[in-house]
Amino acid sequence: MGHAVDDLAVVVRWARHAPALGSAGAQVLRDVPALSSAYRDAVAPVVRRVIGGPDERAAMETALHAMSIKIGLMMLGYARLTGSPLDLRLASLAGAATRLYDDIIDATPTPRLDERLSSLFAPYSAHDVRGFGTQEQGRDRDRDRDRDRDRDRERGLGQRGPGREGGRGQDPEGERGPGWGRERGGRVVGGVPGVRGFAAWTEQEVLLAELCDRIAGWIPGTLERSAAVLALNELHGYQRLSRRQLDPGISPETLVKVTCAKGAYANLVLCALVRPGLDREERWLAMAFGEAYQAIDDYMDHDQDVRNGVTTLVTLDRLSLDAICRRFVVLRPRLAARYGPAATQRYYGLIHLLVLKAAASRRAPVLGRVGRRLARASPLLTTMTRGPDAVPPARAAGGGAV
Q1: Of the candidates 400, 395, 305, 385, the residue with the CA atom closest to the CA atom of residue 67
Q2: Could you read off the pLDDT of 277-332 as tens digits, one per residue?
């Protein structure tokens, strides 16, 4: 009870640092329907084509829809902060891929998976992409590649195989049907442009490769030099290290290193998708805010992490909501110096909504349970709940099955 009272006091104190809370809430009300529509356009057709079982498909849709809206709201907030254009379909793809990637990592704690995903995220070959400078040109590149592949298929060329042109993943019309490209024995050929024969072993991994393929089509310029691609590879390295969080003997120092870096690079990926030409100060800010966002996630997921045997600074009682909010307060002047006081105030209204959601989820779990039920009928309420896992997580040894 004492911690709940402390956190309530933190939320009240934090309100004076986010006077734009009301306008941020009104903006969310406008953005959620648009993001939900973008999900239906960009992500849902891929899920329906790749995931075969109706129950599995419905569960996947629920999980990815919720996260595409949440991540999309933060990406939209960053786009408005920086004055950058953002297509909502890209935001939906990024949110869905983020959820699926995190859940695949959590569900399969094996080095073999890590190595296969490393091949999926490997730096892209320069000859596999053309250097376009805008998102619109990136979409043109995507359509051109689909048209060329269809033409090759009609001629009997481009048969799917490791590292072959026909194996890359765009299939906008869904003519290949569920599970296209899979071969017996678990080997899947296909994946992302520039990746030589990524081998997926599950439908979830095929879906992740498809989503990454579509995101790649939105990235301007040469992909091997893209800040988003480089940050993604760094993120994957720290995600591999995060498996140590299943060890109850992990040191606080290692936890700080892993969780801060994981949050920093995850946010850098998303910010670089919104604003490909990040300068040094912008990269620093993206990573600093990413650390704080990871801390908020760990705070909100405390109970689930305890059940699954995952150690975080929050489960060790070494990180409080007060400390997280103070970090946001410290970062505000530097953000305002870069983007201006007015834009920063609007952005902090969105962050205050995130803090409120985290506190309610952690300290009033009954509201979270009610919200999850209602969220099935309302995309808006998905923003106020954690949402289901796309893939059930693994537990530490002795924790039992999820």
Answers
A1: 385
A2: 899 999 999 999 999 999 999 999 998 899 989 999 999 999 999 999 999 999 99
CB atoms within 10 A of CB 164: 15
Mean pLDDT to the nearest integer, 232-256:
89
Give the CA-trace dihedral at 139, 140, 144, 147, to 10 degrees: 70
User: How much is the mean pLDDT over the chain?
Assistant: 76
Predicted pLDDT of residue 6:
79
Tokens describing residue 401: 């099955």
pLDDT tens readout for residues 177-188? 333 333 323 333
Residue 263 one-letter amino acid: G
Confidence bin at 365 (pLDDT 50/70/90): low
Phi, psi values for residue 188, rounded to 5°:
-115, 130
Whether the predicted pLDDT of 97 surpasses 80: yes
Cα radius of gyration rounded to whole Å, the chain:
21
**More confident position, 17 or 200:** 200
Share of residues in the chain with pLDDT > 90 (%): 44
Chain-centre distance for alpha carbon 183: 29
Q: Contacts from 248-253 at CB under 8 Å and sequence distance 24+?
A: 248/309, 248/311, 248/396, 250/311, 252/313, 252/316, 252/318
Token pair of 35 as six digits:
């993001």
Distance CA 349, CA 355 (A): 10
- Neighbouring residues of 150: CB distance < 8 A, sequence distance ≥ 6: none
Confidence of residue 371 (pLDDT cuts 50, 70, 90): low
Across the strands, what pairs with 182?
188
Instruction: Mark 241-280 as b/e (b = at least 16 C-beta within 10 Å).
Output: ebbebbeeebeeebbeebbbbbbbbbbbbbbbbbbbebee
